[in-house]
Design a protein that fits this description.
Distance between the termini: 42 Å
CATH topology: Jelly Rolls
Number of helices: 8
Strand content: 15-25%
Number of strands: 15
Length: about 300
């Protein structure tokens, strides 16, 4: 399989069991364009369906109601970010999307830099549904990080302590229909900030990945698969061994304009994690919280 032209879809059971073909294809994807998708991952379809319903219900609320959950002082960390604010690094045109941020249920064992979630008064089940999805994707993401750790020759559980009380978040996104085809870029070319991203709902279409030949590859996973990709933090700590891959979301002009919904899970370490070169004992890096804040400024979330 040519990973420069394909996003491999792999059974996660095969990967964890050490199947030679699956681990080889995973390694090629990680060293190629940094994207792969997994099946047989154990995510509850009922939980996912409930979250998509909650997401649609929220984005269908009046703008005045949604805007009441936008608090600029939170730097986009929690709650609602309206349409036309987030802007890819180096771009002057904002992305064509609105979204919500939901994190872990925190207690005193978490960093004080991780904010609490916001309750939506109009939707009583919203937080309950997303708490369940967060917990399930955190477990799956931990397992994905373990196979990635093995693939690059570090201890299987290397990243466990980084993300156990991490600053991870779920982002339900609504991309409204694009009726003006002059700009079909719902999310312009960008890289993710975090360690890894797990995307559920990518089968709606529009996600594209830039390969090493500067060609855009359409990501076309089967239903119920999870698309995984490497983020900037992982690229940093692996000294560029793993690449944070450029990707975008477009609306194909041959299709009837419709809303697109997706729910990526961005896996972050705890704010105090030292993002250092993991291959060099005793190396020093930058704090995860400092790295995150610099990137949030760059994409105009504050």
């Amino acid at each position: 399989m040519e990973t420069t032209n394909n996003i491999p879809e792999l059974s996660f059971i095969d990967i964890e069991n050490g199947d030679a073909l699956a681990t080889s294809l995973l390694s090629e994807a990680l060293n190629g364009h940094g994207f792969f998708s997994i099946t047989h991952h154990g995510l509850s379809q009922d939980v996912l369906d409930s979250c998509y319903k909650s997401s649609r219900d929220f984005f269908n609320l009046p703008d005045s109601v949604k805007s009441s959950y936008h608090d600029p002082s939170l730097k986009g960390a929690r709650g609602y970010t309206p349409f036309g604010i987030e802007t890819a690094v180096g771009e002057s045109v904002a992305d064509l999307k609105e979204f919500w941020h939901h994190g872990p249920i925190i207690d005193n064992s978490y960093s004080s830099k991780i904010p609490k979630n916001i309750d939506i008064r109009e939707l009583s089940d919203f937080n309950k549904n997303f708490d369940l999805l967060f917990d399930e994707l955190h477990v799956i993401g931990t397992r994905v990080l373990r196979v990635i750790a093995q693939s690059i020759g570090v201890d299987k559980n290397f990243f466990d302590s980084w993300i156990a009380k991490g600053n991870s978040l779920l982002r339900p996104i609504h991309y409204p229909p694009v009726k003006n085809t002059v700009n079909i870029h719902r999310a312009r070319a960008h890289e993710d900030i975090n360690l890894i991203t797990l995307l559920v709902g990518a089968e709606e279409g529009g996600l594209e990945v830039l390969n090493k030949n500067d060609e855009w590859i359409k990501v076309q996973p089967s239903s119920n698969s999870i698309v995984c990709n490497i983020g900037d933090m992982m690229q940093l700590v692996t000294a560029n061994k793993l690449k944070s891959t450029t990707h975008r979301v477009v609306q194909y002009v041959e299709n009837e304009p419709t809303s697109r919904y997706s729910i990526p899970f961005f896996m972050h370490p705890s704010p105090e994690t030292d993002l250092r070169n993991i291959f060099i004992e005793g190396s020093e890096g930058t704090l995860a919280d400092d790295f995150l804040n610099e990137r949030l400024k760059a994409i105009k979330l504050y």
